[in-house]
Amino acid sequence: MRILYLNPEPSPENTRELLRQRGYRVALVCACVEALEMIRGQSFDAVVISGEDENPEVLDFTVKAHRMQPELPVFLANDWGPELPTALESLEGLAKEGEVLHG
Fold this sequence. Notes:
Layout: E1 2-6, H1 15-21, E2 25-29, H2 32-41, E3 46-49, H3 56-68, E4 74-76, H4 77-80, H5 84-102
Parallel strand pairs: 1-2, 1-3, 3-4
Helix pairs in contact: 2-3
């Protein structure tokens, strides 16, 4: 599973490392503009955003990302906290079920 990890306010949190330890391929970006370019040019299974959920730049990014790829799930790491890996695992399970049903 490929995760785009947007960390616009670099902080010493360990979410990115935790995701890697769980076997996710994580692409780290620090700028919303760069994240949008990556969404345009690459395929991701989810976006994880670190930082303030009321940051206007992050809100604008979320709207633009949703317009570009409405099916791409976006998670705010601060809101999910320790439940984030479980949510991503559930998402991965749903994707596998979809492959079985349609494959």
